[in-house]
UniProtKB/TrEMBL annotation, chains A, B:
GO cellular component, one term: cytosol
Domain Dyp-type peroxidase N-terminal: 74-215
Keywords: Heme, Iron, Membrane, Metal-binding, Oxidoreductase, Peroxidase, Signal, Transmembrane, Transmembrane helix
Organism from which the protein derives: Enteractinococcus helveticum
Alphabetical list of PANTHER family matching this protein: DEFERROCHELATASE, DEFERROCHELATASE/PEROXIDASE
TM stretches of this protein: 7-27
Pfam families found in the cross-reference section: Dyp_perox_C (PF20628), Dyp_perox_N (PF04261)
Domain Dyp-type peroxidase C-terminal: 228-423
Protein name as it appears in the record: Peroxidase
Protein family according to the UniProt entry: Belongs to the DyP-type peroxidase family.
Keyword Acyltransferase assigned: no
Keyword Metal-binding annotated: yes
Amino acid sequence: MDVSRRGLLLGAGGIVGGGLVGVAAGYSAASVGSPVTPGDLQQPVTVSPGIANTQVTVSDPYGTDIISFYGPRQAGVDTPLQAHGVFIGLYLHDDTDADRLASMMRLVTDDAARLTQGRGALADLDEELAAAPARLTVTFGFGSEVFNRTRPELKPSWLKPLPEYDIDQLDPAYTGGDMVIQIQGDDPLSVAHARRMLLKDARAFASIAWVQTGFTHARASHPDDTTMRNLFGQIDGTGNPTRGSETAERVIWGVGDGDGNGTKSLQPWIENGTSMVVRRIAMNVDEWDELDRPMQESVIGRRLGSGAPLTGEYEHDEPDFDAPGPTGFPVIADISHIRRARTSDSDEAMFRRSFNYDELPTSSGNQLHGHTGVSESGLIFVAFQCDVDQQYIPIQDRLAETDHLNLWTIPVGSAVFAIPPGCEADGFIGEPLFV
Amino acid sequence: MDVSRRGLLLGAGGIVGGGLVGVAAGYSAASVGSPVTPGDLQQPVTVSPGIANTQVTVSDPYGTDIISFYGPRQAGVDTPLQAHGVFIGLYLHDDTDADRLASMMRLVTDDAARLTQGRGALADLDEELAAAPARLTVTFGFGSEVFNRTRPELKPSWLKPLPEYDIDQLDPAYTGGDMVIQIQGDDPLSVAHARRMLLKDARAFASIAWVQTGFTHARASHPDDTTMRNLFGQIDGTGNPTRGSETAERVIWGVGDGDGNGTKSLQPWIENGTSMVVRRIAMNVDEWDELDRPMQESVIGRRLGSGAPLTGEYEHDEPDFDAPGPTGFPVIADISHIRRARTSDSDEAMFRRSFNYDELPTSSGNQLHGHTGVSESGLIFVAFQCDVDQQYIPIQDRLAETDHLNLWTIPVGSAVFAIPPGCEADGFIGEPLFV
């Protein structure tokens, strides 16, 4: 069935090490030079410049769309991807002991609940900025230090830095952290406001380790089944298990037996908890541009436009790794990204939720990392899985060892967090660590 | 009539000096602590987290909405505001003489025309990233040096740095430049792609002086007549002349006599050309937050929620500057922003098209400018007007001299450009300078 078929394909799209993700179709692209008439995008609505430039008509504004905050699981994990995302790594102050940490979590939980539901934060003077949350979600994750200061015995064994990979060039400015706040939504304004309000709450207890800001595509700009495209032009996230499917339940939350193709003994660190890996992956788009299109497609093993494997026609066609090309070598090269990511074990999988980043080319940040000045682009790669060691590391290991794509990508940041369960209105996120 | 009434109000909303802009209503806000049910936003569509988290439905994707590139005037001037904007200041290389400059303008014009119409740039390998322009516009502006190297006799007399104001703390990182490329659209992905393609074109001829990235609110998130809100929570741009109105035609393009309340002898530097002022205005949101709401409203002279003047009920009510308050002083203070911006001369006006910026709090940039670490926020203030000296400077002078709002805002960047006319498919932007 669809679910198990997707299960088999799980690894196929995952970019983990230096990588990105499978390529698949959202709309097909025309050849260079001809006007693009994307297949499943609507016909262009031409707005002429000048006097005829009337206001865009919005028939059904989505600003007040709300995603529930309270519940057994935190939102922002398998929530459908939003347009904008901010990830904030925090270091706890030395004097933030368990009591103070609980105070902080009460404060940020309460404000996250208010902001995501379209209310101002406590004593928020700019509450107008909160009135249109546009599917705002706030998700909290804990690093090792949070457990050290509360209940070390609950610390999952996988909650530690990823192994050091040769492909890595980790920058402390994007690595580690005692805690993460993930803020996402469809409106950059409500995201910006939430970031400021939550940082105001946190600043008495923690300092900023890093901030990463990213985007996918604007909400309502594409058909609803369009997966986001990264800055190499590849669709990113195709192989994800379907939300709510047996496979997704098992991969993310460790619930059930999955599709029967899994072999691991997955166990969530806490019921309705999961793990989050955040990798900042610099993409050398300038050198990538120097490849021709067939070469780009060969590196991935899929076509850029349709996302189909090189041996198939459609995005979800099963790749045929044995099919020989004209020269006798396989059409899909052994070092191609999809070949290396492939696994037959459906537990060896993750749920990806990545965002593009595109920094100012003049910023000082990571210009070190092979960028040539026109752009400083990449992927805030985010993956959720029940167990980092059993699910994430094997794929990462394979890709770090050999993946053609590694030539154009460099992991420059890395962090792992434990995602605690959600809470109800009388509780706060992380409460099980304080009882 | 509406147009002339707006004409009278023109200055009332303009923030120029250290300022921002009038406050007005998009939706009304509830009081702190109660759930917000914004008046003219639709009812919330609740999406539950977890299994029920199905994909957002998009009935009418706007990704292929296109704004014409070719025409007598450049797009991006009185085009309805998009959600995302990037402004790139360039310095011409020493060897970029008139011939090379013409080559550059041919190249960037051609690619801007292609990208805005949903086609890849010339030899664009990531053309999928161009297929959904989402009202992408590209606008080119020239600084003094472009005229020096081409036809100095066409240089407008107002094309020079603004006067030095006491309130200014200009940072070279956001000031000046020989040329500007303004890229705007509703999808951050197509804007990012266009930025990269156009910088690739330009890099043989020019280097980057500065880059500024901003946002308004996401397209389709708010009702279509909602003016954007800045990071002080104020609606920004209320007093703008109506696109296509007599006043707008005269204010922006120097065409006609306007509404009859103007007194200037406005003359465009070239037919269908105009001017652009870009001011980066840092906003100390942290200190602003320390004011209570009545004080915030007193600084502006308008209510935050509704945008109504303090003497009125609705956004477009005429402020009564003589109305006394309980203590005998005017309700709208003499030093309030709307009082200082006010003018009865409808030619003393501009068309504002500003974007919010909200940088990473850890960036090194302008943390100097009074920010306390939680946010580095402000406004990329953009104003178009036929004649900087006659229209912009008088308002700026008044606001720089006294405006209560100056206590929380600091201009940290400033640049002035001449906007040349549009072109047809066989021409290029700026062609009149090369004949």
